[in-house]
């Protein structure tokens, strides 16, 4: 209980921020859903066949699992609050549409007849008779939708839209129950409070309802507007993939940019997701910059012509840069020195014993190889498949999760594993990389990627980031990863130390 | 009366609902200022006829004239603003207060709010409901009889030249029904509007109608005063329809009905010595008096409107058919 309270005190600023984001996403989605569903349902009351069809459609939409829906929306609209709001709107359509339709459809026909007989126009009948009578039913539909939205909106955190889901995700990630509880309870409370507010509107007159909704909308726009105005500095969003290395890099980016361009602030989104997720985020302008590897660009992001194998590191980079520019109007800045690539690793003692230096040397001890590798590596043509082919080997690896694989290497359960060349474990476990002299593994150089527009309008940012060009060796990166992963230093601190010690950043203190 | 142009006139009107012929060749003229009752069993076409007047139902063939002008030539909505309508289901708008319900049509006619408020209060008083008490109530807070009072004054609020009543009292209990029938007569006498009143209850028709149209199976069988219908039915159906009303509870039949239906007579010189009855007194009381004297006078507000003797009463009773 004390931990919970302490976590709450600790996180209250972030909680308030998350609550506001949550509220913003939920209410925006709700208002949009109302604007779509209510008029549609009113129209449908005069078109029975269409109404049946629309009811079917909205029911089907509701059955799509929310996670799948969010995933489906990413390639279409990218990440952030837009796909989150779209998904929530889709969920909210059914209850609002259904209740509006039923509410109006079930009005006593004699009341409709009376309204007609008194000479009411269709609009007058709608606003004076039908909507007021159906209002309690419509509002109860809106209430159902709202509770649904507030709950589902926690998933928005998965696609970078923030909100209370961030607390839950972070809690799961860090195995911190307090965070999960705080996120969940706040979300539930929000649903209860909003639902009560709407319940009050249910019994109120139409005029009160419209006034209340008006006040909420105006207040909302006002606060959002104020936030926009009160943030005179331009905000650059930099995101990074999961893991310590991108995390360290983006902290370097932040320090360098904020040092040389005082007119911008930098927001970091560490551990933002996987490759395609980040790239889509960049495309949809949800983020502005993220560090990417040249090899990954060629392998996964651009549609490349010709053969990518046997390219040198520099050739790979140039090709990636040109393709990004041509196909996506993106600027790929100069790469850093270190190359993060796949590697086959063995323990130093093992290498010594059999005099292993290159991958080709494995041929002689093929019968003694016990390999454990990640599933991805085993299946990639520039992974194990390529190795077996190029080096005429027949290594059969059992697939294991990355950290388990290191554990297995350490315990001697396996003697050959795959690795990234900058993994901190290489240093930690005293592992040796076998040389890939037949160039199966594409050389991966890291560099920031951003839109061409941002690059051309912010030369200071480009200049700041280019300071890292040719810097950071494999050993530097391994060391920094080691400090973060093993010594539990903060990425920000490790990044800053490197920059200062290499004269890239003036020591503020 | 006969020289005046009819306010509503049906000319060779036919109405089909899909395959079914609801009305065949209807010709009917309703005179301004009269209380015209259409009576018939269910399925006779009386409600269809009524709803064609405000075009809730459009005729398949023929013309309906309103003050000599074809209904087709009117804008439906503005036409309806001039035709009051009272429904069997009452159909007060549940989200509106009593005052708002009554103001519905004046508001659409853009009458000044103050004037409308005055009209609402005065109408409430006329139907015996205290404006202070009832103005801001919701329909759900009223009894059935009170609701239909509001239903009636809602139709009257904008002083339409013609008001349609579609079986307005059939769902109400007999005592309330009688009260509301009297109310309709009162309001009609005060406002001099034209009323077309649909009912399946011949007693109600006889009580209310200046003229009565009897309908059956989409045909208008006879249009006449209550007196003529009782005395000169055009066919057996009409005769039976009337006889049916005699049969039920003779003792409680109001004496007024015998006046309406022509069973009383007039005398040049009354002695004013006969025992007196009023229209709402029952035949039971007449039996008691006639057992002692030869004739009684029937009065309406201290005016003798007719005399009744034993022979006439027996004649009325003999209308009961087996």
From TrEMBL, chain A:
<dbReference type="GO" id="GO:0043190">
    <property type="term" value="C:ATP-binding cassette (ABC) transporter complex"/>
</dbReference>
<feature type="transmembrane region" description="Helical">
    <location>
        <begin position="64"/>
        <end position="94"/>
    </location>
</feature>
<dbReference type="InterPro" id="IPR035906">
    <property type="entry name" value="MetI-like_sf"/>
</dbReference>
<dbReference type="GO" id="GO:0031460">
    <property type="term" value="P:glycine betaine transport"/>
</dbReference>
<feature type="domain" description="ABC transmembrane type-1">
    <location>
        <begin position="19"/>
        <end position="198"/>
    </location>
</feature>
<keyword id="KW-1133">Transmembrane helix</keyword>
<dbReference type="Pfam" id="PF00528">
    <property type="entry name" value="BPD_transp_1"/>
</dbReference>
<keyword id="KW-0812">Transmembrane</keyword>
<feature type="transmembrane region" description="Helical">
    <location>
        <begin position="133"/>
        <end position="159"/>
    </location>
</feature>
<comment type="similarity">
    <text>In the N-terminal section; belongs to the binding-protein-dependent transport system permease family.</text>
</comment>
<keyword id="KW-0472">Membrane</keyword>
<feature type="transmembrane region" description="Helical">
    <location>
        <begin position="25"/>
        <end position="44"/>
    </location>
</feature>
<dbReference type="InterPro" id="IPR007210">
    <property type="entry name" value="ABC_Gly_betaine_transp_sub-bd"/>
</dbReference>
<dbReference type="InterPro" id="IPR000515">
    <property type="entry name" value="MetI-like"/>
</dbReference>
<dbReference type="InterPro" id="IPR058089">
    <property type="entry name" value="EgtUBC_SBD"/>
</dbReference>
<protein>
    <submittedName>
        <fullName>ABC transporter permease subunit</fullName>
    </submittedName>
</protein>
<feature type="transmembrane region" description="Helical">
    <location>
        <begin position="208"/>
        <end position="229"/>
    </location>
</feature>
<dbReference type="InterPro" id="IPR051204">
    <property type="entry name" value="ABC_transp_perm/SBD"/>
</dbReference>
<dbReference type="GO" id="GO:0022857">
    <property type="term" value="F:transmembrane transporter activity"/>
</dbReference>
<feature type="transmembrane region" description="Helical">
    <location>
        <begin position="179"/>
        <end position="201"/>
    </location>
</feature>
<keyword id="KW-0813">Transport</keyword>
<dbReference type="Pfam" id="PF04069">
    <property type="entry name" value="OpuAC"/>
</dbReference>
UniProtKB/TrEMBL annotation, chain B:
<dbReference type="InterPro" id="IPR017871">
    <property type="entry name" value="ABC_transporter-like_CS"/>
</dbReference>
<dbReference type="GO" id="GO:0005524">
    <property type="term" value="F:ATP binding"/>
</dbReference>
<keyword id="KW-0067">ATP-binding</keyword>
<dbReference type="Pfam" id="PF00005">
    <property type="entry name" value="ABC_tran"/>
</dbReference>
<protein>
    <recommendedName>
        <fullName>ABC-type quaternary amine transporter</fullName>
        <ecNumber>7.6.2.9</ecNumber>
    </recommendedName>
</protein>
<comment type="similarity">
    <text>Belongs to the ABC transporter superfamily.</text>
</comment>
<dbReference type="InterPro" id="IPR003593">
    <property type="entry name" value="AAA+_ATPase"/>
</dbReference>
<dbReference type="InterPro" id="IPR027417">
    <property type="entry name" value="P-loop_NTPase"/>
</dbReference>
<feature type="domain" description="ABC transporter">
    <location>
        <begin position="8"/>
        <end position="242"/>
    </location>
</feature>
<keyword id="KW-0813">Transport</keyword>
<dbReference type="GO" id="GO:0015418">
    <property type="term" value="F:ABC-type quaternary ammonium compound transporting activity"/>
</dbReference>
<dbReference type="InterPro" id="IPR003439">
    <property type="entry name" value="ABC_transporter-like_ATP-bd"/>
</dbReference>
<dbReference type="GO" id="GO:0016887">
    <property type="term" value="F:ATP hydrolysis activity"/>
</dbReference>
<keyword id="KW-0547">Nucleotide-binding</keyword>
């Amino acid at each position: 209980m004390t931990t919970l309270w302490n976590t709450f005190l600790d996180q209250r600023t972030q909680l308030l921020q998350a609550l506001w984001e949550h509220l913003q996403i939920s209410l925006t989605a709700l208002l949009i859903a109302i604007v779509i569903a209510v008029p549609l349902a009113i129209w449908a009351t005069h078109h029975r066949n269409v109404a049946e069809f629309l009811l079917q459609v909205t029911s089907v939409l509701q059955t799509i699992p929310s996670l799948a829906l969010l995933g489906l929306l990413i390639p279409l609209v990218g990440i952030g609050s837009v796909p989150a709001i779209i998904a929530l709107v889709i969920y909210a359509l059914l209850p609002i549409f259904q209740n509006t339709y039923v509410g109006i459809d079930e009005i006593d026909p004699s009341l409709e007849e009376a309204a007609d007989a008194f000479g009411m126009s269709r609009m007058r009948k709608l606003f004076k008779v039908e909507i007021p009578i159906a209002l309690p039913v419509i509002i109860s539909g809106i209430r159902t939708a709202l509770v649904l939205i507030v709950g589902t909106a926690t998933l928005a955190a998965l696609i970078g839209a923030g909100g209370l889901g961030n607390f839950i995700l972070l809690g799961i990630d860090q195995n911190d129950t307090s965070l999960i509880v705080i996120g969940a309870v706040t979300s539930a409370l929000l649903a209860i409070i909003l639902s009560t507010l709407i319940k009050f509107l249910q019994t109120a007159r139409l005029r009160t309802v419209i006034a209340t909704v008006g006040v909420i909308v105006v207040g909302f726009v006002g606060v959002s507007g104020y936030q926009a105005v009160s943030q005179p500095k331009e905000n650059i969003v930099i995101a990074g993939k999961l893991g310590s290395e991108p995390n360290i890099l983006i902290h370097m980016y932040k320090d360098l940019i904020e040092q040389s361009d005082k007119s911008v602030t930098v927001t970091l989104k560490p551990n933002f997701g996987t490759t395609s997720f980040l790239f889509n985020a960049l495309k949809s302008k949800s983020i502005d910059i993220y560090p990417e590897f040249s090899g990954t660009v060629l392998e996964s992001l651009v549609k490349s012509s010709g053969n990518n194998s046997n390219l040198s590191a520099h050739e790979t980079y140039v090709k990636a840069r040109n393709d990004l520019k041509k196909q996506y109007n993106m600027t790929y800045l100069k790469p850093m020195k270190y190359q993060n690539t796949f590697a086959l690793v063995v323990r130093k003692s093992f290498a010594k014993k059999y005099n292993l230096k290159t991958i080709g040397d494995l041929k002689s001890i093929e019968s003694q190889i016990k390999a454990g590798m990640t599933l991805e590596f085993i299946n990639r043509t520039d992974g194990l498949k390529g190795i077996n082919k190029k080096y005429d080997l027949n290594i059969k690896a059992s697939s294991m999760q990355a950290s388990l694989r290191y554990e297995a290497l350490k315990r001697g359960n396996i003697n050959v594993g795959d690795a990234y060349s900058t993994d901190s474990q290489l240093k930690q476990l005293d592992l040796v990389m076998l040389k890939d002299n037949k160039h199966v593994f594409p050389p991966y150089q890291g560099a920031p990627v951003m839109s061409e527009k941002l690059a051309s309008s912010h030369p200071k940012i480009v200049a700041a980031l280019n300071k890292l060009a040719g810097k950071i060796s494999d050993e530097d990166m391994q060391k920094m990863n080691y400090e973060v992963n093993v010594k539990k230093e903060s990425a920000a601190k490790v990044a800053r130390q490197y920059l200062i010690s290499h004269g890239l950043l003036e020591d503020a203190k | 009366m006969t020289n005046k142009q009819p306010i509503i006139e049906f000319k060779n009107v036919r109405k089909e609902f899909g395959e079914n012929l609801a009305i065949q060749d209807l010709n009917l003229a309703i005179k301004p200022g009269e209380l015209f009752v259409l009576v018939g069993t269910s399925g006779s076409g009386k409600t269809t006829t009524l709803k064609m007047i405000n075009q809730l139902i459009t005729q398949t063939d023929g013309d309906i004239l309103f003050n000599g002008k074809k209904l087709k030539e009117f804008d439906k909505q503005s036409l309806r603003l001039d035709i009051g309508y009272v429904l069997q289901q009452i159909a007060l708008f549940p989200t509106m207060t009593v005052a708002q319900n009554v103001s519905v049509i004046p508001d659409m006619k853009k009458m000044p709010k103050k004037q409308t408020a005055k009209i609402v209060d005065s109408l409430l008083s006329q139907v015996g409901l205290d404006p202070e008490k009832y103005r801001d109530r919701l329909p759900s807070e009223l009894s059935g009889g009170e609701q239909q009072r509001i239903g009636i004054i809602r139709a009257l609020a904008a002083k339409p030249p013609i008001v349609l009543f579609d079986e307005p009292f059939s769902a109400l209990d007999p005592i309330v029904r009688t009260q509301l029938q009297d109310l309709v007569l009162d309001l009609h006498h005060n406002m001099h509007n034209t009323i077309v009143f649909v009912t399946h209850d011949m007693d109600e028709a006889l009580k209310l109608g200046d003229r009565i149209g009897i309908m059956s199976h989409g045909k208008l069988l006879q249009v006449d005063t209550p007196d003529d219908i009782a005395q000169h039915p055009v066919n057996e159906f009409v005769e039976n329809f009337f006889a049916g009303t005699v049969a039920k509870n003779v003792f409680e039949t109001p004496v007024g009905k015998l006046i309406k239906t022509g069973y009383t007579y007039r005398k040049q010189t009354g002695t004013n010595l006969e025992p007196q009855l009023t229209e709402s007194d029952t035949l039971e009381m007449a039996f008691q008096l006639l057992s002692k004297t030869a004739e009684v006078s029937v009065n309406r507000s201290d005016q003798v409107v007719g005399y009744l003797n034993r022979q006439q009463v027996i004649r009325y009773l003999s209308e009961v058919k087996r």
